[in-house]
Every structure is written in structure tokens, then in C-alpha cells.
Task: structure prediction
Amino acid sequence: MRRYLLASTVLVLLGTSYLIGEGDQGNTTPAGKAYRFEKLADGVYFATGTGAMTTMSNGLVIVNTDHTMLVDTSVTPAAARALVAQIKNEITPRPIKYVFNSHYHFDHAHGNQIFGDEVEIIGHEYIRKMHLTNVLQQRTNRSFTEGLPSQVAQMKQRIAQTTDAKERATLEASLGVTEAHWKATQEVVVKPPNVTFTDQMVIHKGGREVRVLFLGRGHTGGDTMVFLPAERILFTGDFFEGRPGAGVLSYLGDSFIDEWPASLERMKALDFDVIVPGHGAPFRERNQIDDFQSYLRDFWRQATALRAQGLTAPQAIEKMDMSKHIPAYGPRTGRPDARAVLRAFELLQIQMPM
Result:
């Protein structure tokens, strides 16, 4: 889940890349294809969006001797169908028999419904629990989808006003992607995992070992790591995000901020070389884990202190200063995400009612 609201008018009018995550960086995919693939190891491919369609998150494709595994199913059934079609056409015709959900958020699991019951959809028991609630009305889902109609209206207004042909073409392309995404969200029927685990699961299938791990609460209450020990590749979803040479802050709005650093410490103990994040791009710099732990600890410390002083969450948003983390995460980091502060105050209220 990206940290900032997708409803930002300025970013929408600049184009679609921010709306769909990091998928269009360095894109060499032919026009019209929703995804591009990067080979990470024999039979292991990173999947990310190109900008031709709203995909919003990354995936991992694992090709085994007689079947295929897919980690995360994207943001809508339409995006999932596009991903599956490209896998078949560009990577392998071997059927997808196993799907993994890294967590319950819409941008990683709302393609589940395209898979029949013969496909094992694997996720932590918390993911199934959340998917069986009215998760479409949960505030995180609403915060990223309710603004879509207004985005469409704003882009139409700009198209009507502009006299610049290049700007018009950019806006019309963005409008087409956003309208298609809004339509695609109307098709979503949340389908929970049909195979769940609590701590870990090890799958030996098709000549490959896959470890499915829960290392503790962090981004959500059921973050699922998919670890390929032989290939030394770890898919982290939004539990830990990044890209080569630059950190990426995960969304904190549903997180367990105080527990997250310890969970990340357990991740450090795994023997991996490559991190494949839910947003960003595959990278190797372990120091980014330290940076994120530092951010989380500082965030929790400041939120705790301000609440103890009697401040409300809206007041704390104005007081919190995260500027020391700008070197790791960029200039927008100085002010905290309001949804993250609200979440911190919710957790503190449970721990220390006032």
C-alpha cells in the first residue's frame, strides 16, 4: 500500500505512474501490455506494471516442472486476468496451481476471484479473517477508491480547458486508465485464501522448495513472506518495501507500528540475497531494513509522547517531526501520513486507555 493518498489531484494530472506504483520505471514493454517481467533466477520472475493499466503492486511468478505459482493477484480481477494472460503468453503455459497472498489489502488480493477452487490460494489465517469481513468498506480500501470518480471529473475538466496538444494527449491517456480502473473495481468480489497457516508452511512441489512465513505483525496482522531458500529470494509484500539505492516507506494505516521493528529483526535472520517488495523494485541493500526500523521506532516514540501530553491525533500530526529520515526516504517524509498517526493513537488507546 502506498503511503500517500491516490486522490492527490496534482499527481493525477501529472500522469498515471504514481497511481499504479513503481511499475513504469525503466519500462521497455511494448505499448498496451499491462505488465513487464524481469527474470531473477531460473524459473523465477518479478512482475510489475507498465502504466498501460492500473496494477498498483508487484508480483512474483514461480515456474516449476509441471505448474506455476503466483505471489499476489493485483488490484482487480481485470488486472489479474491481464497478468495471467501475459504469464501464459510470455513465460509459460503451465497452469497456475498455487497462489499466495502477501496480505489482505486490496491492491494485492483483489484478483483472487478469477481462480477456481482447484487453485490453492494460500495466506495467513488473518488474511482469511479480514477477507470474510466487509473489507470493501474498510477505511484503507475506501481511502484509495472513493476518490476515483472525482479524479475522473478533474481530468475531464482539465482536458476541456487545455489548449496544449501534448498535455491533452497525456491527460486523455491517464483518463482512460483511471476510468477503466474505476470500472474494474465495481467487479470485485473478495475471495479469501482457501488454505491458511499460522506460523510457517513449507511446500515441496515441482522440484522447488517454497517457505511461507509469518514473522510477526507489521504492515498488517498477517503479513506473509514467500521465501525461496535455494534461490535466496524473499518476497516481502508491503511488510518491507524498497528499490535499489532508495528506501520506500510502507503504508502504516493498518499496521502494528510498535511490533514491526521486532518482526523485521526476524526477517534479517533469514538467509536471502534479493528482496522483492510489494512496491518498488528488487534490491539487495540490507541497510534499508535498519533505516525502516529506525523510522518506525522514532514514529512510535513521538506518537506515544505526544499522546501522553494530551494531544489528539490531528494535533499530533502537526507536531510530529520525521525530518531526520529525509535522507533515507525523501523530502515528503518530514510530515507524517495522517492515517499512520491515527493508527498509532488507536493502538495506544488499546494499550493505555485514556
About this structure: Residues 212 and 226 are 5 Å apart (CA to CA). The radius of gyration is 20 Å. The chain has three domains: 35-136+192-257+271-284, 138-187, 294-353.
